[in-house]
Amino acid sequence: MVIISYALVLYCGIAIYFKLKKTQGLLSDGANKYQKQITIVMTAEACIPIITVLFPILLDLLTIAVGFYLPWGGKLTYLLCCMAPLINPIIKLCVISCYRREIAKVLKFTKLSHIVSPISNSVMIGPAS
């Protein structure tokens, strides 16, 4: 059932990508920007379960089938499984620009272009021409 759902997600994702590629000229620049951000978020949300669910299961199966024991394997499996609910929102907050802007305001991040450097105000003295 999981394989069918991932195949469906993959098919729909590819179909949406090609449909948006065809209609890219019809959309505004802002709409294109947000479509790209949404595509990145959806791709990441589809890939995260591979890392947080499939990898721990494969690690356990490797331990059972081959007898390859990793003393830290159980801790890694537990950590990866617990990280899924945390990683999804962090990706959304980092990728979508309006969320990023609000976080920057709250944390009072500024762009480097707004910071005046003492070097830019100084006069460079060079050899006479």
TrEMBL record:
Pfam families: 7TM_GPCR_Str. The chain crosses the membrane at residues 46-70, 76-99. Keywords: Membrane, Transmembrane, Transmembrane helix. SUPFAM superfamilies: Family A G protein-coupled receptor-like (SSF81321). PANTHER family: 7-TRANSMEMBRANE DOMAIN RECEPTOR C.ELEGANS (PTHR22943), SEVEN TM RECEPTOR (PTHR22943:SF248). This is G-protein coupled receptors family 1 profile domain-containing protein. It comes from Panagrolaimus davidi.
